Structures are given as C-alpha cells and as structure tokens.
C-alpha cells in the first residue's frame, strides 16, 4: 500500500471534498492527483494500490469520495465497493476503470457505486463526476445512462454474460484474455479445481459448450478486456466454427 495525506482545512472558505485514490498503477494515481488537486475544492487525503489498503485508509481518514479501479490485487474492486458501502456509507464510490461500461457499470452500481467512468474519460468529465457523486448524485456517461434505461425496460433481453456472478465474470474475462486455468488460479488466488468449477458454471449459464464458443461470444459482444487482445472477428469466428481448429484453440488455452 502507498498512501499520502494532506491537511484538510478550507481554501478561501471553500467546503473541501475529501478524496482517496485506489489504483494499483502509480502513474494513474499521479495523473489523477494532478487533475483533481488543480480544483480548489478537492483534496486528496490518501492513496492506496490495494483494496485492503483502501479500507485501512478509510479507518484513519474521512473521505467523501473513493475513486476506485476494478482491477486490484487481492480484494477485488467490486468487493471493495461493497465493503465501502457497508462499512463507510458516508463515502461515495466512483469507479474509474479500463473496462467498458457495457460489461461492468451495472454490476458496479448494484454493488453500491455512485458512478462509473472509463480511463479514457476527459479530465473535465472526471471532475464533473467527482462533484456529482460527492453531492449525493449518480454519474454515468450519457450513452451508458441510455443503456441502463433500456436494460430496465427490456429485462428479458439481458445478455447472457449478465447472468454470471462477479467472480464468474472475472474468470470469463481471464479466459477471453487467453489465460490458462493455472494462470487464472494464481491471479485470483483460487484453486485450480475452483477455477474449473467456475468455468463449468459459466458454460452452463451461458448455454455454450466449449471454450471456442466462449471466445466467439466474447468477440461478438466485444468483451475482450484489452484492445491489444482483439483479433479479426471474422477470422476468429471461422476458426471457432471448425471443430478441429476449435479443439486446437482449447489446447493452446489449456482448457
């Protein structure tokens, strides 16, 4: 855990909004600090690179908003959101993630977050979002707000990946990233047997019959977690549709 604290007080009589930053990349935290501390009414009272570290910070310093990444070592960002909401209800949570809103925003909101932004968000929108959630509001991009409204109106057309639990979605994302069961086990700190069980449940819930089918679904729904991992969807779909090549892909991925 890394942390920094600043003495709060008032700046020219302003009511300061106290923030903590939770991201395992120092460069991201430094960039956020530069953007946010340029605002006269925002002050960073702590930083952490882990979820457990963030909870420790909140025991020591009051915060109005926690800006949280989802991809954290140890305690996941989604579990951290739930912990903050239950243990520190006065602290709002704004998610700032590399993952597309379509995949995680609804889950983050259900876990207790008040807002969701992706890391390609412009600085001025980030500042607006911080002020909005600090004031007790909820912040989503306009496009995501429309999708949320549509999802509420069309519950019966929910994508199959929305049926997965948070942990199953983490495993699914790792599968799409091409990681083997042993690698996923190490990353998520779970046994190989547990990861295999999660994969079986993922296939059942999504009504798919193979790893190749999962990859094809991920391509069709643009769920690849990193743009660098994306491949030509027509080529991948053709491969996945051919039994021999699908079997080869499964062997490469270790499933």
What is the secondary structure topology, with strand pairs?
Elements: E1 17-22, H1 26-36, E2 42-48, H2 51-60, E3 65-68, H3 77-87, E4 92-97, H4 101-111, E5 115-118, H5 123-134, H6 142-153, H7 166-176, H8 181-188, H9 192-205, H10 211-220, H11 233-241, H12 243-253
Parallel strand pairs: 1-2, 1-3, 3-4, 4-5
Helix pairs in contact: 2-3, 7-9, 8-9, 10-11
Strand order of the largest sheet: 2-1-3-4-5
Largest sheet: 5 strands, parallel
Say what the CATH topology of the largest domain is.
Answer: Rossmann fold
Query: What do we call the CATH homologous superfamily of the largest domain?
Result: Response regulator
Summarize the model shown.
The chain has helices at 26-36, 51-60, 77-87, 101-111, 123-134, 142-153, 166-176, 181-188, 192-205, 211-220, 233-241, 243-253; strands at 17-22, 42-48, 65-68, 92-97, 115-118.
